């Protein structure tokens, strides 16, 4: 026995390893025939006991009005509150004095998906979406411009509601 | 002569291919069974039920980058996978896998080489496998790999003795070292698993240790040694170690089937036991042999996904303090019993002989398990410090 080895006090003669082993083998054998919990992902995206939460904060979506124009009024609150500084907004003004975004870009690689932009937006224009399949062939495809943000169709996040903290 | 050559070459090619295909399928089987035990599905995407997964894995291995550690012993490093791979396949050469196949030019025994010294050949070749593992560990110039290699060699040497001793029991009963004769004996008087129950137990445990499978997979214990002896290997050389492991597993399973479960013998019938040989008999016995082997392969996998790994001192204690004395004592008892039945009572090996031995073995096995089941196998260190285990 090497020096400094801590001796564990274990029940020596009363312990059964043969029966414990056989018990374990029986258990694993029973598990062979149990129903499997695997979700066959690309074909099957939700099951009876699992669906994606409506509070999921994924890639953004800009809502549009009846004429198909974005609801954004370029107030500048979302780039202001964004902790990751991933929103680029250049405001413009038309002849009637309506403000609209000349440039509105979100860098989805920088985004931390906190959902503050959606919370702060007075026009309910920018939203984080319930969406998670974002693969692209190149990095620059992850800077979403206004046109792309408006074209997204996935459902938008309901975010966390303090009056209903458990989502009921 | 020409016929012998041609048939031998044909058998070599067939057996080689069959083993490699079996190995490929077993890698898939292992993953699937593992998944099932863990309530998952496992790889089922490539081909129906994932049957083409091994092909995908193989292709990936071939295309991956081969790495060579800067300070490695290049020659041995490159040689080691082949050294561990070859003996795994060689052992299978002496295992008979079906009844002789009748052809217009004469009967072809369904064994690659029906060596009169089949047993000794197996013992000799199976010990060679450890060279590959040890050399791989040493030549990598990596401390974890070296430790894995050292463990492998210590473990192999320890359990080889118990393994050899348990097969001596078979020799004793069969009075012959040719595997086809061992099978013929079992057809006459019942499978050796009954008449040599304790030897089968020792053989089973030692075979697990010899093939480096859980709970004896200390050479590659990933928790403490990263991946053990194959830490530094990549791509196809890494795969070679895997193929070697699974080929060893197939061979050990086939050996257990041959030595203790009657080889290609179909139980409860004597239709397959003697000539005239027909193609139907060859196919049926071959299928039965495969089924028996597959059962043991399943056992290997099942045990792997159930039991935790032994600690190193437990491994050594089990090998030297339990299995070796047990094998020696058992051999003495068995030799006496066989001598008494054969010489004193003048019985030939037959069902009565087998049942008599089974009675003896049942009592011995009962005693053994009663004794083992008292905290003996993996005794706590406190018990050891008190000098009890």
Summarize the structure in short.
The complex is a heterodimer of chains A (168) and B (389). Chain A has helices spanning 18-32, 77-81, 116-120, 146-151; strands at 58-62, 87-93, 99-107, 126-129, 143-144.
Please describe the topology of this protein.
The complex is a heterodimer of chains A (168) and B (389).
Chain A lengths: L17 H15 L25 E5 L14 H5 L5 E7 L5 E9 L8 H5 L5 E4 L13 E2 L1 H6 L17
Antiparallel strand pairs in A: 1-4, 2-3, 3-5
Chain B lengths: L1 H36 L15 H11 L10 H17 L10 E3 L2 E3 L9 H22 L3 H32 L4 H11 L2 H4 L1 H14 L11 H4 L9 H26 L18 H26 L7 H33 L6 H22 L8 H5 L4
Helix pairs in contact in B: 1-10, 1-11, 2-10, 3-4, 3-10, 4-5, 5-8, 5-12, 8-10, 8-12, 10-11
Describe this entry's structure for a reader.
The complex is a heterodimer of chains A (about 170) and B (about 400). Chain A is an alpha+beta fold. Chain A has a domain at about 60-150: 2-Layer Sandwich (Alpha-Beta Plaits). Chain A is built from four helices and five strands. Chain A has helices at about 20-30, 75-80, 115-120, 145-150; strands at about 60, 85-95, 100-105, 125-130, 145. In chain A, strand 2 (about 85-95) and strand 3 (about 100-105) form a beta hairpin. In chain A, about 20% of the residues are buried. By secondary structure, chain B is an all-alpha fold. Chain B has helices spanning about 1-35, 55-65, 75-90, 120-140, 145-175, 180-190, 190-195, 195-210, 220-225, 235-260, 280-305, 310-345, 350-370, 380-385; strands at about 100-105, 105-110. In chain B, strand 1 and strand 2 form a beta hairpin. The longest helix of chain B is centred in the N-terminal third of the chain and has 36 residues, at about 1-35. Chain B is globular. Classes of the chains: A alpha+beta (about 170), B mainly alpha (about 400). Chains A and B meet through helix 1 of A and helix 1 and helix 14 of B.
């Amino acid at each position: 026995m090497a020096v400094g080895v801590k001796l564990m006090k274990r029940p020596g003669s009363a312990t059964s390893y043969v029966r414990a082993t056989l018990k374990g083998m029986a258990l694993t054998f029973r598990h062979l025939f149990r129903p499997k919990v695997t979700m066959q992902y690309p074909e099957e995206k939700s099951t009876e006991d699992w669906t994606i939460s409506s509070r999921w904060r994924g890639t953004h979506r800009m809502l549009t009005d009846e004429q198909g124009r974005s609801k954004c009024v370029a107030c500048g609150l979302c780039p202001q509150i964004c902790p990751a500084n991933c929103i680029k907004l250049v405001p413009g003004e038309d002849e009637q004095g309506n403000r609209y975004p000349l440039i509105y870009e979100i860098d989805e690689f920088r985004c931390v998906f906190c959902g503050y932009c959606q919370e702060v937006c007075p026009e309910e224009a920018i939203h984080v979406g319930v969406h998670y399949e974002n693969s692209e062939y190149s990095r620059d495809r992850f800077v979403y411009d206004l046109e792309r943000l408006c074209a997204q169709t996935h459902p938008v996040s309901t975010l966390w509601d303090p009056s209903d903290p458990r989502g009921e | 002569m020409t016929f012998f050559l041609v048939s031998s070459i044909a058998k070599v090619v067939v057996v080689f291919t069959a083993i490699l295909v079996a190995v490929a399928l077993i890698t898939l089987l292992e993953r699937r069974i593992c998944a099932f035990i863990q309530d998952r599905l496992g790889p089922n995407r490539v081909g129906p039920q994932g049957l083409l997964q091994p092909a995908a894995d193989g292709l990936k291995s071939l295309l991956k980058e081969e790495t060579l550690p800067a300070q490695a012993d290049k020659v041995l490093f490159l040689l080691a996978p082949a050294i561990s791979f070859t003996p795994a396949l060689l052992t299978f050469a002496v295992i008979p896998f079906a009844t002789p196949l009748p052809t217009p030019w004469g009967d072809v025994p369904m064994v690659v080489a029906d060596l009169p010294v089949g047993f000794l050949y197996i013992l000799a070749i199976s010990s060679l496998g450890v060279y590959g593992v040890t050399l791989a560990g040493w030549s990598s110039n990596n401390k974890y790999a070296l430790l894995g290699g050292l463990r492998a060699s210590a473990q192999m040497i320890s359990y080889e003795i118990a393994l050899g001793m348990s097969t001596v029991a078979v020799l004793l009963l069969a009075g012959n070292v040719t595997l086809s004769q061992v099978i013929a004996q079992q057809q006459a008087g019942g499978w050796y698993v009954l008449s040599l129950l304790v030897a089968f137990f020792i053989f089973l445990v030692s075979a697990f240790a010899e093939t480096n499978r859980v709970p004896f997979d200390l050479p590659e214990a990933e928790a403490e040694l990263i991946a053990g002896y194959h830490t530094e290997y990549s791509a196809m050389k890494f795969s070679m170690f895997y193929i070697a492991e699974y080929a060893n597993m197939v061979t050990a399973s086939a050996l257990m089937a041959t030595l203790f479960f009657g080889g290609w013998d179909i139980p409860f019938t004597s239709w397959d036991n003697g000539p005239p040989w027909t193609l139907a008999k060859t196919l049926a016995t071959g299928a039965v042999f495969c089924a028996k082997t597959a059962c043991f392969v399943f056992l290997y996998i099942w045990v792997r996904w159930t039991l935790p790994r032994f600690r190193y001192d437990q491994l050594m204690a089990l090998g030297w303090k339990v299995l070796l004395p047990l094998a020696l004592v058992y051999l003495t008892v068995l030799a006496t019993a066989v001598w008494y039945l054969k010489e004193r009572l003048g019985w030939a090996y037959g069902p009565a002989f087998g049942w008599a031995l089974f009675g003896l073995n049942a009592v011995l096995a009962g005693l053994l398990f009663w004794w083992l089941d008292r905290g003996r196998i993996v005794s706590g260190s406190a018990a050891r410090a008190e000098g009890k285990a």
